[in-house]
């Protein structure tokens, strides 16, 4: 096994278990992928394996361009096409996480974007979490729609489905998914209390930039 692939397998399985522990997915839903830098490979979670028993060796390494399985015995996630589409379109992204967290999925079901109403959400996303056009799960169309709505931001909602969070590594994608869910909860509660006040475009830009600079120094 390639040493770098082994390292990324460990990171992906840790992030996947944490995603489950945080209640961002139920049972076997959701999926995680990470680019193996300088190899043209991507490590993805397998299809249908319970996160509680998932091991690093259950993950699958695939070719970024062809999607062909290079290493691993199990079938890759059914959302492989979407993960690859995002990683091909965003060279700055090395980690992609897809969750079905409840409040964010509620926004996706209502086709309502989550506006930047709190600072941490603005920092990790860099604007509203937009809703991608509906497409059936597992299709290339879902990936294309997700890429189109994601633009250069940190997260996107898949209509009537869930969330995708991205980052320079998989732990950052996990953080993004967690903050998007928290932001969706705050948005829903703020709407019950009154009218949520959006952060200005300039403030969102400033928050995003300073967050990125800080992240780069770690
Ligand atoms: Zn899904």
Can you walk through the features of this model?
The protein is an alpha+beta fold and 218 residues long. It has a single domain (3-216), classed as L-fuculose-1-phosphate Aldolase. The chain is built from seven helices and eight strands, in the order αββββαβααβαββαα. The chain has helices at residues 3-21, 80-89, 102-109, 119-125, 140-150, 170-193, 201-216, and strands at 31-36, 41-44, 60-63, 69-71, 95-99, 131-132, 155-158, 162-167. The model has no long low-confidence stretch (mean pLDDT 96). Zinc ion binds at residues 29, 98, 100, 137, 161-162.
Describe this protein with a few key phrases.
single chain, alpha+beta, L-fuculose-1-phosphate Aldolase, eight-stranded mixed β-sheet, 7 helices, globular, binds zinc ion
- Distance from first to last alpha carbon: 29 Å
Cα-atom radius of gyration: 17 Å
The bound ligands are:
zinc ion
Q: Low-confidence segments, ≥5 residues, pLDDT <50?
A: none
**What is the CATH architecture descriptor?**
3-Layer(aba) Sandwich
**Corresponding CATH superfamily:** Class II aldolase/adducin N-terminal domain
Sequence of secondary-structure elements? HEEEEHEHHEHEEHH
Structural class: alpha+beta
Tell the overall outline. Answer: globular
Percentage of β-strand residues: 15-25%
CATH class group? Alpha Beta
Oligomeric state as shown: single chain
Number of domains: 1
Query: What is the CATH T-level topology?
Result: L-fuculose-1-phosphate Aldolase
Kindly report the spatial arrangement of strands forming the biggest sheet.
4-3-2-1-5-8-7-6
Based on DSSP secondary structure assignment, what is the total number of beta strands? 8
The residue fraction in helices comes out at 40-55%
Q: How many helical stretches? A: 7
**Biggest beta sheet attributes:** 8 strands, mixed
Keywords: Lyase, Metal-binding
InterPro entries: Aldolase_class_II_sugar_metab, Aldolase_II/adducin_N, Aldolase_II/adducin_N_sf
Organism: Effusibacillus consociatus
Protein name: Class II aldolase/adducin family protein
């Amino acid at each position: 096994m390639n040493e770098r692939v082994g390292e990324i397998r460990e990171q992906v399985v840790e992030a996947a278990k944490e995603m489950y522990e945080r209640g961002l997915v139920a049972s076997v839903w959701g999926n995680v992928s990470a680019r193996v830098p300088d190899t043209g490979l991507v490590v993805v979670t397998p299809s249908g394996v319970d996160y509680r028993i998932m091991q690093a060796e259950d993950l699958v390494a695939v070719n970024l361009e062809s999607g062909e399985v290079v290493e691993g015995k199990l079938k890759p996630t059914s959302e492989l096409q979407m993960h690859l589409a995002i990683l091909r379109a965003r060279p700055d992204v090395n980690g992609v996480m897809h969750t079905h967290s409840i409040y964010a999925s509620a926004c996706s079901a209502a086709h309502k974007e989550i506006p930047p109403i709190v600072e941490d959400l603005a920092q990790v996303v860099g604007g509203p979490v937009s809703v991608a056009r509906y497409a059936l799960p597992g299709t290339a169309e879902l990936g294309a729609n997700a890429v189109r709505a994601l633009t250069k931001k940190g997260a996107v909602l898949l209509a009537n489905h869930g969330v995708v969070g991205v980052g320079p590594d998989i732990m950052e994608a996990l953080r993004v998914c967690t903050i998007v869910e928290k932001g969706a909860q705050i948005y829903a509660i703020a709407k019950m209390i009154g009218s949520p006040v959006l952060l200005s475009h300039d403030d969102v830009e400033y928050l995003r930039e300073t967050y990125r600079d800080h992240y780069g120094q770690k």
